Amino acid sequence: MDYILGNTKKPGCFFCEYPNDVANYRQNLVLVVQEHAFVCLNRYPFTTSHLLVAPRRHVADPSELEEHEYTALMSLLRDSVVRLKRAVSCEGMNVGFNLGKVAGAGVADHLHGHLVPRWNGDTNFMPVIADVRVMPEYLDEAWQRLQPAFADLPGQHAT
């Protein structure tokens, strides 16, 4: 409800701020920060352990990334899929980018990919049918479970 009512929306771009706020990685749900990309939990997830993978540079579209930034983003996305599958034992996963507001991007001006773990019989129909989200786990608990799975990746991690 905080998101819907707008009580937690802050000015600025959290995708730009979070990687630089090392002291608050856990509070900001950041799992790993690399030179050109980073991973954090979605604060408003579709399901438990819903991750966001974003470039460090503020761009809206993949075509705006330099080749090395694109490669770093896609590499971290691939590495995140492997670690997320291992950490939550999901049976499937939705991976994608929503480009632009009309495509469903909640933050349209900073490119980011979604990794949404899926299980047979999960409640993903709830947001569509009843505009309700069922979350079986608190975000900090998800962060604590996922953080060790990302500890072997190069980059900055919460201490």
UniProtKB/TrEMBL annotation:
Cross-referenced CDD domains: FHIT
Catalytic residue list: H112
SUPFAM superfamilies, alphabetized: HIT-like
InterPro entries: AP-4-A_phosphorylase, FHIT, HIT-like, HIT-like_sf
Residues involved in substrate binding: N42, G104, A105, G106, V107, H114
Lineage: Bacteria, Pseudomonadati, Myxococcota, Polyangia, Polyangiales
One example GO MF annotation: catalytic activity
Motif (Histidine triad motif): 110-114
Keywords: Nucleotide-binding
Gene3D superfamilies linked to this entry: HIT-like
Source species of the chain: Labilithrix luteola
Protein name: HIT family protein
Keyword Zinc carried by entry: no
HIT domain sequence ranges: 17-125
